[in-house]
Amino acid sequence: MRTFPIVMALAVAAIAQTATAQAPGSRNAAAISGGTYTADPDHTLVVWTLDHLGFTPYTGMFGSVTGSLTFDPKQPEATKLDVTIPVVKVTTASTGLTQHLLRPGKEGGKPDFFGPAPADARFVSTKLVTSGQTAKLTGDFTFNGVTKPVTLDVSFYGAGRTPPNMGGKENIGFRATGTIRRSEFDLGFGVPFVGDEVKLEIAAAFQK
């Protein structure tokens, strides 16, 4: 009969410990020391969404992003961001669509979309205008061999240091949104039945 009180005590202790535990990251900008950070390819995601035939939105994703961020909390306008996106690693929920995106052109012609060996996309910042913990980041976006300026709305998500058993590195994260027109990057196959406007939602993680 003594087992039940012991089990209850252990359960209460576990709940109390869970309640007091906190994630290492927070929205405390003071946790950002500044310097040059490396993109975390496992936690940086570029999610894209466009209209499908006027029936539904359709979403895909790019990951494995690499690059660097140079950031000084005292001089945010001097921020430098240079990231590379491996287009060949595009992911969708449809195996057939993913294959189509990377399919070569018929009889040696131009591919409908990226083709089997697409060049990496790249974003290089040119200007940052801040307002509290949000900002507008403008840069040169090179995609499918075409370079055009793109502006992203950026918000600070969190910063902090991971525990020693997770590397003990300083991490900072941001969310960003933006819009491009794929036809401007020579990717207009299917327009207007499949939307030209592509909405971007980005989770950007950096560490040093």
Alpha-beta classification: mainly beta
Oligomeric composition of the shown chains = single chain
* Unreliable spans: 10-19
Q: How many H/I helices? A: 2
Order of helices and strands: HEEEEEEEHEEEEE
Strands, count = 12
Question: Main β-sheet: number of strands, strand sense, barrel status?
Answer: 8 strands, antiparallel, barrel
Instruction: Write down the overall geometry.
Output: elongated
What is the helical fraction, as a range of percent?
10-25%
Mean pLDDT: 92
Strand order of the largest sheet: 2-5-6-8-9-10-11-12
As a percent range, the share of strand residues is over 45%
Separation, N- and C-terminal Cα atoms: 54 Å
Rg from alpha-carbon coordinates: 22 Å
Could you give a quick summary of the protein structure above?
The chain is built from two helices and twelve strands. By secondary structure, the chain is mainly beta.
Can you offer a commentary on this structure?
The chain is mainly beta. Helix content is 12%, strand content 46%. The chain has helices at 3-20, 95-101, and strands spanning 25-26, 35-39, 45-52, 56-62, 66-71, 80-85, 91-92, 121-131, 134-143, 146-161, 170-181, 197-207. It has an eight-stranded antiparallel beta barrel. The protein starts with a helix and ends with a strand. The relative contact order is 0.19.
List its salient traits.
single chain; mainly beta; eight-stranded antiparallel beta barrel
Blueprint (SSEs and pairs):
Layout: H1 3-20, E1 25-26, E2 35-39, E3 45-52, E4 56-62, E5 66-71, E6 80-85, E7 91-92, H2 95-101, E8 121-131, E9 134-143, E10 146-161, E11 170-181, E12 197-207
Antiparallel strand pairs: 1-10, 2-5, 2-12, 3-4, 3-12, 4-7, 5-6, 6-8, 8-9, 9-10, 10-11, 11-12
